[in-house]
């Protein structure tokens, strides 16, 4: 029989000892007599590298420390290591934030590498030995089994209130609710320090599982606080058999549950330690301060129990209560268990009698008395007999176990003879903790939250059912715009019997189009009807129209257009940036400029010529070419609906007028106060323009906001009212909530740290240390409830760094600079040319940036392929083109593989390890199909392109995006960052701000928030903050460097 401690942590986990390295773990396991110990933290790359270097296989699926690394004091019998790691899953399920920790045991380092790579594609596994993933525990189990079917998966410390399977705050009532269809793959449960077998025996649903106990040690000296007795071969198959069948599993060594810091109920700040019965008596509220009482493990067990206290199942495994030997020494001698004297006594005992567990469990007390004296022998005698006094832990405060009363210790003075001349300490009687006064339980007078609109209000109904030929709906933020649009389409199909093929809905983003189609599929009785609708952005609809009418046009990628502009600028000595050049080109094509500026004319013509040479067109050409073809009589435009009407430019307005000219209905919806694309030629005056062009137009206003609290809505209205236009009317239909918080920080760095720490607080703490230091009662949020909005992508980078360091999962949305990296451009160009051989611009980019081909060969290859791709073989005579041709042959048969896998293979072949390429890989996980990925990067708007570490599993993540990218979205909690002079409004000496548009952008950001809005101003604050009302706003000044220096030091 051997002792196994399977759940521990390395030095790479948060709040662990730096001695949690392999040498000290080996040393202390041998001191204690532990035969099999978990490595902990195999997901951490640095720790995994150390495991590979210092461990060698010792039996099937287990390892031992190489002899040259063992410390001098280690005992001859070396413990064996089994690969283990704890994963923290924080996610939303069944409408509740769930926080569940799970321990995974694997049979070899290869499996650990495979699983770690999988998890790295989902979340950050680098910053903490116990990674935090926004991943459903059920999905983590599935991933684990896919990587290694032999894996052992154990829900950890299942009763801990904040982070466990059955936790009172964020757990489940049954294992099946957590793991669903994979529940049968769970065979063992770790019960944790705050419960023991008699408590667990009261819950019948646990009878069929092997109930294990482990130390969850964060320092080597804590190993074996709890452990398992196993009588099988000391290898992975033997361990697996014992845990899955119970055969060979002989019981557990248990911490006294009262000593656990979540055993009883209570409220630590008020010194309130109470029983579950008292909690019920107080209505779950602290009688001192009125806040919620922290529910302990005993209470939670009673909630799920169906048996009386004292029941023992027929096949229950035996157990023993133990106390670490140094604590026994301290309690028996009346000295500090962590002091030098207790340590010296401990080492002396081990040298004379053997391992710690031998001393605690087996060696006769007579032998112990001869070696250590009567007090220690008596202490161990009482421990074995269970004669201890317990004071239960509560609300994060450890309990205490007492072997001797103060008077007994006093009487033992003089009997301490282990070290001659050692002076017995004087024991002062402990003062009794003051009992909490019994006060009347405070009650909340909360306003019952109204349901989000379940039926349309009169204004929405008027818009949905209008029979007018032209309907203009001005819909403020949160007024149910998308719902109205979807209901309008459903009304046309189901009530007016309009064929779906006659209906087109134009959206601003591809994401909005996909969501609208999904809603209609759910809404319509005829599910196939949604597939016959035309739903898409202007560019996607135009591309489909032109492709159906003739050969599909080839669009130039935005990054390639920038490169082309750079060449044109150099050729004509134009003094402007490539992006500014393209903006000017677009302004000309969209009639924002009435004519081409004379000094710009030659460059403009050259740009167009170069596009023609590449057989390509840009996005503006796509729209203008569609307008030239005149699709006014097209069947799909009989009923035309346009979303986000306020953001259309002149060319798009003309397309709408053309498409609807022969149709039966035009329905536009939007909000002039959310017009934020003036730099593209959009104008908030488009509603007035349509009204002037269509005298019979019916105008409907939606003014009931169902999204934001009154505090958020009133603050937003106060700001936007400084713009020109009629008085704004929006009424809140949600109950009052938290004030809008304005937070002034000293720097961008302080702001980023605050955001990371505050997200941790919003989610109830990222680990147990955070969770039990929460000082205020607040609504618990999942990661996906939270958005961080910035004016520019550049400002978001420091925030991203801090979130990554705190192991907070996130997704970045938007078109970022990594897409302009030459290697990224060349890669995308290669795969675009592979899927569309006529795409000369993409082929040129690939040959230039991946293979560094000279211009003449690039030209030859482009001309040859554009004429006839079959003739590509003739290019093989050129040695510099052979590597490209080989890549074409290799990857042309791989385009159906998953995008990330394909790009990872590509990156390895061409040694692409840059930050930019890593970000491309992070974006690819959202698009399993290569064509979908390429199309999104080509046609996608700001909010369509996402980058993160999420795969196909429903993992929750904080969203980081620009204000432009946030349009159309909503989140329970929103951070608006970088609200400083020069950044909001965005302006410089060379770029004066359009104040009214910048204010509209600020308004858009504010109105994304449903319940919490935090406005952060590092440095000199934005003038827009002066426009906030006095009521419903709380202003704070955060002196992070002075007041939170400890947090900063721990962050970096």
Structure at a glance:
The chain is α/β, with parallel strands linked by helices.
Describe the model.
This protein is of the alpha/beta class and 1052 residues long. Helices cover 38% and strands 15% of the residues. The protein is built from 39 helices and 33 strands. Strands 1, 2, 5, 6, 7, 8, 11, 12 and 15 form a nine-stranded mixed β-sheet that branches. It is globular. 51% of the residues are buried.
List keywords for this structure.
1052 residues; alpha/beta; eight-stranded mixed sheet; 39 helices; 38% helix; globular; disordered C terminus
Q: Which helices and strands appear, and what pairs or packs with what?
A:
Layout lengths: L1 E4 L16 H11 L3 E3 L6 H10 E5 L2 E4 L14 E14 L2 E11 L2 H12 L11 E2 L3 H11 L4 E4 L19 H5 L8 E3 L6 H4 L9 E3 L14 E4 L5 H10 L3 E6 L10 E3 L4 E3 L1 H6 L15 H8 L14 E3 L3 H9 L6 H14 L2 H6 L3 H8 L1 H12 L3 E3 L8 E3 L3 H7 L45 H8 L4 E6 L5 H14 L8 E4 L3 H14 L10 E3 L1 H12 L8 H15 L5 H12 L11 H13 L5 H11 L9 E4 L7 H11 L4 E6 L15 H8 L4 E5 L1 E2 L4 H11 L10 E2 L7 E6 L2 H15 L5 H4 L14 E5 L2 H13 L4 E4 L8 H14 L4 H10 L5 H13 L14 H10 L7 H11 L5 H10 L5 H10 L6 E3 L9 E5 L8 E6 L18 H12 L2 E10 L14 E6 L1 H4 L1 H7 L1
Helix pairs in contact: 2-3, 10-11, 10-14, 11-13, 13-14, 16-17, 17-18, 19-23, 20-21, 20-22, 23-24, 26-37, 27-29, 30-31, 31-32, 34-35
Largest sheet entry: 9 strands, mixed
By DSSP, the count of extended strands is 33
Helix content: 25-40%
Helix segment count?
Answer: 39
